[in-house]
């Protein structure tokens, strides 16, 4: 390896470090995805004979009222992306200030990120329960006379799940935006202040525009996560009540492991992949057009 060019040597070393993760992704992500494609065109039977049925699973999907509800709920869940990104940017600006104890504050906000969503969902499930802490406090304060069914009501179940998702994701995106803010040269901010701009104007006209590459990346990753939400629905509501939280990913799982319709489940998964790709391409094109501008450091 000593005879190789430095650039080639660095590339080989980089791939060696990535190799364990790439192997895991290949066996647990690439192979299942590729294997599900032919399955989507079949009437798969665990015990009987598997038959090729062409596009019948896809035709069934788009005539399935419950699947249409799942699509609408998944699209609705995408509404978590804008408030999550806005709050993360504001939080990053705040934690970038030199205040005593701000490092502890950053750590506290990041703890939910490294906590399993399953554990987070169980904890919030207890809090939102009819006999949970939130209802007990509201009743003690006299704000309500009887417990509210936060996660048991079709009108509020989705809002609870969206709130929990935003709460957990704040710390992750906060750290990404914080890295972006700290990479902006201080001279640019100082120049704006010298020219007469207020702190707020400097933030809006200087810092936030220079964060566009980070906004593009964070929005894209947040969007993919929102469309493919599963774990919190699985733990907290199982798609209920009355399908109010039935999203595409959970519907695909339900059809595979409850109704044992693996071919139909695979077709639903492919539709989800197409929807995710459409959203991702739209955000990516925005980033290429203007959302991904950088500055000369």
Question: Brief overview, please?
Answer:
Helices cover 70% and strands 1% of the residues.
Task: Describe it.
The chain is mainly alpha-helical and about 300 residues long. It has 14 helices and 2 strands, in the order αββααααααααααααα. Helices cover about 70% and strands about 0% of the residues. Strand 1 and strand 2 form a beta hairpin. Helix 4 packs across helix 11 and helix 5 crosses helix 8. The longest helix has about 35 residues.
Kindly estimate the percentage of residues that lie in beta strands according to DSSP.
under 5%
* Main beta sheet strand tally, sense and closure: 2 strands, antiparallel
H and E string: HEEHHHHHHHHHHHHH
Q: So, CATH architecture of the largest domain?
A: Orthogonal Bundle
Total domains: 2
CATH topology of the largest domain: MetI-like fold
Instruction: Please state how the strands of the largest beta sheet are arranged side by side.
Output: 1-2
**CATH homologous superfamily of the largest domain?**
MetI-like
Helix content: 55-70%
- Unreliable parts: 291-297
Average pLDDT across residues?
Answer: 86
Count of beta strands: 2
Question: Structural class, judged by helices and strands?
Answer: mainly alpha
Euclidean distance between termini CA atoms: 34 Å
User: Could you tell me the radius of gyration in angstroms?
Assistant: 24 Å
Number of helices: 14
């Amino acid at each position: 390896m000593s005879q190789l060019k430095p650039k080639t040597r660095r590339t080989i070393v980089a791939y060696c470090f990535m190799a364990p993760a790439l192997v895991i992704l290949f066996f647990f992500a690439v192979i299942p995805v590729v294997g599900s494609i032919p399955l989507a065109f079949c009437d798969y039977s665990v015990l009987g004979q598997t038959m090729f049925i062409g596009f019948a699973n896809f035709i069934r999907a788009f005539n399935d009222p419950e699947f249409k509800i799942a699509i609408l709920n998944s699209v609705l869940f995408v509404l978590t992306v804008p408030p999550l990104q806005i709050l993360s940017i504001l939080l990053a600006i705040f934690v970038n200030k030199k205040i005593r104890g701000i490092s502890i504050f950053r750590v506290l906000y990041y703890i939910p990120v490294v906590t399993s969503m399953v554990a987070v969902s169980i904890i919030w499930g207890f809090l939102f329960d009819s006999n949970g802490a939130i209802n007990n406090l509201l009743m003690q304060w006299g704000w309500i006379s009887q417990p509210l069914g936060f996660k048991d009501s079709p009108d509020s179940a989705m809002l609870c799940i969206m709130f929990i998702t935003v709460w957990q994701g704040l710390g992750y995106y906060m750290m990404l935006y914080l890295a972006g803010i700290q990479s902006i040269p201080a001279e640019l901010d100082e120049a704006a202040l010298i020219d007469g701009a207020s702190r707020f104007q400097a933030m809006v006209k200087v810092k936030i525009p220079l964060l566009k590459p980070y906004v593009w990346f964070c929005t894209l990753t947040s969007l993919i996560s929102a469309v493919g939400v599963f774990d919190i629905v699985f733990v907290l509501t199982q798609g209920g009540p009355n399908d109010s939280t039935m999203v595409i990913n959970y519907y695909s799982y339900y059809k595979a492991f409850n109704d044992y319709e693996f071919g139909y489940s695979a077709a639903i998964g492919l539709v989800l992949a197409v929807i995710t790709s459409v959203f991702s391409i739209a955000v990516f094109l925005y980033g290429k057009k203007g959302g991904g501008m950088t500055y000369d450091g």
